[in-house]
Design goal:
273 residues, alpha+beta, N-terminal domain of MutM-like DNA repair proteins, Helicase, Ruva Protein, domain 3, 2 domains, five-stranded mixed beta sheet, 7 helices, 11 strands, 23% strand, elongated
């Protein structure tokens, strides 16, 4: 599943463009072809098409793992889930097997939501908080301090790894970057959240920001066909490195299941306290 750096990369490409692809900010939506009705969370397909007609894309951004398009009157939201992607194609380009939604734009362009596993969802709403209002704080937001995170952690006895994956606790982290951050912070994934010291919490917040920042600079990790050619996978410390030496101490990386998710850590550098 695309996580914060991968989604941020897609938002940046769509907003700013790249060689051979113009930016989408300022483009007008001329029509909507919904090819898989269940991809649309709300409103109804008929209302979706009617409301989108001739709206202009004013900005494109990210909140947690959501992509949000600020339109002239509404908000268009995408959650890519396991395999979703957003692609800009020429109007004359043929449909591909996993295309679920095609938006016709001016300048002979289309914006295509392609989703092989059909788990991704699309919303068109007049108020963005109707969908995003329950998300936790953004980990890269300067307003999130170590003291704030300490208080949030000490309000629960949950284990660290599942808590970091909870989008209502903190937005944007997934399996890859949670494992990488916990390793960098030298914290065990099963550590109870309320037992962390303020110093450990400060180290955790710094580590989260370091791995996310590095992931964004490297355009995310390319470990599935839906990712955007990033190379952060070449710099993993622990994720998917079971049995390989820890970059800090040489101990073989271990893999356990935490909350039904494969979890990678160094038994020496991340002892369970």
């Amino acid at each position: 599943m695309p996580e914060l750096p991968e989604v941020e990369t897609i938002a940046r490409i769509l907003r700013q463009g790249q060689p051979g692809q113009p930016p989408l900010v300022g483009r007008r939506i001329l029509g909507a072809n919904l090819l898989w009705e269940r991809s649309l969370a709300e409103p109804s397909p008929a209302e979706f098409a009617a409301r989108l007609d001739h709206q202009v894309i004013e900005n494109i951004g990210r909140r947690g793992k959501f992509l949000h398009f600020r339109l002239r009157r509404d908000w268009l939201l995408f959650h890519l889930r396991m395999s979703g992607d957003l692609l800009v194609r020429p109007l004359a380009a043929p449909l591909e097997p996993h295309d679920r939604l095609v938006l016709t734009l001016d300048k002979e362009l289309t914006l295509v939501f392609n989703d092989a596993r059909k788990f991704g969802r699309v919303w068109l709403v007049d108020e963005v908080d109707r969908v995003l209002g329950d998300l936790g704080p953004e980990p890269l937001d300067d307003g999130l301090t170590a003291q704030d995170l300490f208080e949030r952690l000490h309000a629960t006895r949950r284990q660290l790894k599942p808590l970091l994956l909870d989008q209502k606790f903190i937005a944007g982290l997934g399996n890859i970057y949670a494992d990488e951050a916990l390793n960098l912070a030298k914290l065990h994934p099963l550590q109870p959240a309320n037992l962390l010291t303020l110093e450990q919490v400060g180290r955790l917040l710094e580590s989260i920001r370091m791995v996310l920042g590095d992931g964004i600079r490297r355009n995310g990790a390319s470990i599935d066909w839906v990712y955007r050619g990033g190379d952060f996978q070449n710099y993993f410390r622990v994720y998917q490195r079971t049995g390989l030496p820890c970059p800090e101490c040489g101990t073989p990386i271990a893999r356990i299941i935490v909350g039904q998710r494969g979890t990678h850590y160094c038994p020496h550098c991340q002892p369970r306290e």
